[in-house]
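Quick one from the shared queue. A colleague (R.T.) flagged 2-hydroxyacid dehydrogenase as missing a structural entry in our internal table.

Convert sequence to structure tokens.
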Amino acid sequence: MKPTVLQLSAILIPEIREQLAERFDLHRWFEQTDKAAFLKAHAAGIRGVITGGHTGITRELMEQLPNLEVIAVNGVGTDAVDLAYARDRGIKVSATLGALTEDVADLAIGLLLAACRGIPSGDRFVRAGLWEQSPTPLAPLPLARQFSGMRVGIVGLGRVGRAVATRASAFGCPIAYTDLRAMDDVPYRFVPDLLALAEQSDALVVAAAADQAEGIIDAQVLAALGPQGYLVNIARGKLVNEPDLVAALQSGSIAGAGLDVFVDEPRVPPELYGNEAVVLQPHRASATVQTRTRMGQMVVDSLEAVFAGQEPPGRVA
Ligand code: 8YV
């Protein structure tokens, strides 16, 4: 008999979907209209859960799955899974560690470049036919901010933070970082205090885990970054105090931002829609065919490993 697996978030790659359907008795939670009736009929048989990094799983749902053995997170962030509770229950949790590093770092640099150089504003300007009306488009499109050589401050020097640092270094950017401790295997400057890092940076890139760092980017940090400073967030929305960020973008107390993540996705503060200083993405940093294929394969492999009594790849609990 195939092991029963509950899928909490969608997987778009056809080969992965085929493998899931082939190997598991798969139930899609998001397609269940009567969730209580579904749980009554199937909860006891569910041995595995697939979820996304942002979606995670509620403690309440875990409590209703008495025979759960494994949660395979299709992402690297595990802040939406109660890892302590999973450990207590002996439920193994895996994440797609290392599978999405390059893509997330690529998008961080893309967002920073897009925000500094006003790429989306320029694109909108051309598409609206405004270039022909204003052949020297200086008034509607102010001169941009140079990216090469910017002082880049990285908040959280994990896999993604390091990959951002490598890329920004290639643009001649001096790199500093803050983290829980200094790292002796990198050539970058450690700044223990986030406020000091913000003061000394032209751009802050948020790449930290969100488990214990909610709201660390607040009005004070944004004020320290200053009116010439840019913020990029490709980690989790809740690392940033969103009302403070909206206020900073509205008042010009920072120059701009590039955001892939938000506190209450898919809701984005509506004040940002008309703000040309911010570049917005719908949480797509890992959304390439190549990376999502690697991630999906790790999810399949994790489930199979646990059902075969083995250690899952990317185990975090
Ligand atoms: C994904 C993420 O968008 O890795 C994470 O933690 O949030 C993203 O890579 C998500 O997990 C896709 O399911």
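The mean pLDDT is 97.
Residues 289-307 form the longest helix (19 residues).
Added to the table.
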